[in-house]
Amino acid sequence: MTIAPRIPDPKKLIKGATGDWEVVIGMEVHAQVTSRSKLFSGASAAYGGAPNSHVSLVDAAMPGMLPVINEECIAQAVRTGLGLKAAINEVSVFDRKNYFYPDLPQGYQISQYKQPIVGEGVVTVDLPDGISIEVGIERLHLEQDAGKSIHDQHPTMSFVDLNRSGVALMEIVSKPDLRSSEEAKAYLSKLRTILRYLGTCDGNMEEGSLRADINVSVRRPGEPLGTRCEIKNVNSIRFAGQAIEYEARRQIGILEDGGVIDQETRLYDPGKGETRSMRSKEEAHDYRYFPDPDLLPLVLDPAWIEGLKAHLPELPDEKKARFIADYGVTPYDAMVLTLERASADYFEQVAKGRDGKAAANFMINELFGRLNKDGRSIEDSPVSADQLGAIVDLIRDGTISGKIAKDLFEIVYTEGGDPRDLVESRGLKQVTDTGAIEKAVDDVIAANPDKVAQAKAKPTLAGWFVGQVMKATGGKANPQAVNDIVKAKLGIE
Amino acid sequence: MTDLTDLTLAEARDGLKARDFTAVDLTKAYVAAVEAARDLNAYIVETPEKALAMAAASDERIARGEARPLEGIPLGIKDLFATEGVHTQACSHVLDRFLPPYESTVTANLWADGAVMLGKLNMDEFAMGSSNETSYYGPVTNPWRKRGSNARLVPGGSSGGSAAAVAARICLGATATDTGGSIRQPAAFTGTVGIKPTYGRCSRWGIVAFASSLDQAGPIARDVRDTAILLKSMASVDPKDTTSVDLPVPDYEAAVGRSVKGLKIGIPREYRLDGMPAEIDALWQKGIDILRDAGAEIVEISLPHTKYALPAYYIVAPAEASSNLARYDGVRYGLREKGEDIVDLYETTRAAGFGAEVKRRILIGTYVLSAGYYDAYYLRAQKVRTLIKKDFETVYADGVDAILTPATPSSAFGIGEKAGADPVEMYLNDVFTVTVNMAGLPGIAVPAGLSADGLPLGLQLIGRPFDEETLFTLGAAIEQAAGTVSAERWW
Hints:
The complex is a heterodimer.
Chain A lengths: L13 E3 L2 E14 L38 H13 L7 E2 L2 E4 L9 E4 L9 E6 L5 E13 L3 E3 L8 E3 L6 E7 L6 H18 L11 E10 L9 E6 L2 H20 L7 E6 L4 E7 L9 E2 L6 E2 L2 H9 L5 H12 L3 H7 L3 H11 L4 H19 L10 H12 L5 H14 L3 H7 L8 H14 L1 H9 L4 H11 L6 H12 L3
Parallel strand pairs in A: 12-13
Antiparallel strand pairs in A: 1-2, 2-10, 2-11, 3-16, 4-5, 4-15, 6-7, 7-10, 8-9, 11-12, 13-14
Helix pairs in contact in A: 2-3, 5-6, 7-9, 9-10, 12-14, 12-15, 14-15
Chain B lengths: L8 H9 L5 H14 L6 E4 L1 H16 L10 E5 L26 H8 L3 E6 L38 H8 L5 E6 L5 H7 L2 E4 L19 E6 L2 H11 L29 E5 L9 H16 L3 E5 L7 H16 L17 H12 L2 H14 L5 H23 L4 E5 L16 H5 L6 H6 L3 E8 L5 E8 L4 H15 L9
Parallel strand pairs in B: 2-3, 7-8, 7-9
Antiparallel strand pairs in B: 1-3, 4-6, 5-6, 5-10, 9-11, 10-11
Helix pairs in contact in B: 2-3, 5-6, 9-11, 9-12
């Protein structure tokens, strides 16, 4: 694996009117912790539900209510920290972040400010060009989600749904180590993969389980960091890319016109494809953070942390390395196969006792393509790993050609059935009987004397004959045998 | 039969057990006494039907021989404690008509032990005050009056209703809370006994929060034994309050009457204030003499950071309060004033809902937590707090078992007397008590005599963490020597 050093890469610079610019990106990703109940109450943390049906007295901030830490949420944050190869802080503190908002019943959010539960870590991000970069993690802290204000239910009033109030979030803060929208998207995607492997966040961006605040600034290559703007609450990887592209160009435009960037919070409007100002630095809240006196400092037992570490699942980077080493797949294929834990498991089931490369090729080219077309996930694949393995075996032992394999796959995908039986019942078996092939070759040669003459002058035209023979045999002839016989009959090498 | 309301809690308990009278008899006597004492304004809500129903149930249990520790004992509950379906407003306008669908852990413990609820007691709004004059429901009158005077005096605060009700014998005991002295100062002003236990001894769940790191519930009762009996029932570890502590609750009553021989009592020189009234100094000396005569060893000690305690307290407590009171925004419950938009709704609701003292503390607290001031105020105050705690740890490590101080710098003052004054003058009432909250220690106030004009004066004993037993032992020794005092009924 090649880790690219973080020096300005000419390929990633943005061309402005007055020269090149480098974009610098850092992210604060809010990931909803996968847990049955909320961070400080026993109410359900499940998505959806009738408004205000998952609300405890604590979530509604009734007088005299007190938060009690949900140990599972703590474990999930520690697992995530371990997955990000980060330092776990044995002592961390919950603070109150004070501000007024109708969907914030307490008048403060319980968060972690000065002493987060997880410290510095690193994420290795694979880029499409085969290069990998390391993105530093600054910290991870736990905090409560807010409720939801609903403005479209009444002519003069707003409604509040507190179902999400108090749900545990992990805020994962990266260092400003990203240098293009591509890198930013790849980072988000990798982070999502890691969280899903760990089972600590379902990564469902449509439901808001994963959303990003993106800090963007631009500078001339080699110069100090520019003034940044923060794009709030981006809830899709595609939008993240678009928002960064727009924002970088907006800032470059201002700077090239001799202006200065105002440090501010902005929102991305996917409809218009632009970011717009939400509030300036001067309008920023004074959150009056202070340690929450209702909660004692959180002290973790090192043995407990070790226990969690011992039970961590194999993570995408390790799995990828193992696939390359054990199955001989290319780094790119290994990356694609390990994007989802379910895909990786499927692959291993197919590759077991078979040629890993062949299994990987068939999965990536046929299965993934077909699933994508239908918008299905690997978990809903109509073709099981055993069925797919059988198809790979049929190619391998020469029973069917690669071309037929595609047809067979489509039949299995749409109709189901045992691939071996289907080959028999549908007559898909490859013709390896040289007599039959010779007959077919003879027929084609006899019918095309002009092409024969041309082929003798230009031997690559043999391919045309092979194609005709395959057509004549309905694709069932063994392509290698056809090739050999065509060449022999034409007398070319 | 004598007036049942003249019995102490322990006597009433024993009388019920002996079937000298029924729980319903006892409760009826209290319901009548409560009604007759409305002029004091100690109760803001009376719950006679509930009380009689609970008493009837107690009589059945007594008849079955299943009496629990507080079976049939009528109590008053400070309005800060959530009582299911019963008025709970921390005596604030902002919580108008709020009826909690839940019961605080402390009161639930009391009902589980058989106690009977007479009603909700007046208090300073959100427990902020030292005279019970900040209540939305008006001031409470102290049952005590100066000799030869009809002038109404304050009962102290914030648990003024609790202390006045106990002193007026309109409950056998009362729940109270103490953030900076709110149990001990009113106890001292009314000739009653009040203990603020160690932080974490009683659950805070269901108690309207003022300053979470300082708030602690405790009882006020007529004598040391009664106070010990009540604390035993109130205290518990609670999974719903992670600052509560999982230690067994001792039989505090057994500590009453134990010998004080050999106990080492510290007398902190820093508590001898300039300009302290001579009678307070004399009272302190009386306490020292009583304990020495009973066999305790008296040693002078130093608690050098005492003088910083009050200013630090008035940073930490308002800071926490400013955040704790943010939830009273008119959105979900309580008062809601009209507003043009959400910010206007917050502003009109909070402007109308909070009284002047509460607003003052919210503003102070917001200020000391603000960017640029946090380090200079809040952080420094927390450092002072650590130093105060260390002062106590040092003397306890040197073998001191408890510390004796005056409970208050004066006796009860007149209603309205300090109303126009600098608020700091009112804050000075807590000068002897706040250190105990800052250090999380237990402190008990016991009456030790009367002032020249016939008002009760109290002494404070400060103990080691979770050593309330020693405080009950020492408090009982002072009580035995000084005698209990009771207000003459004039209302």
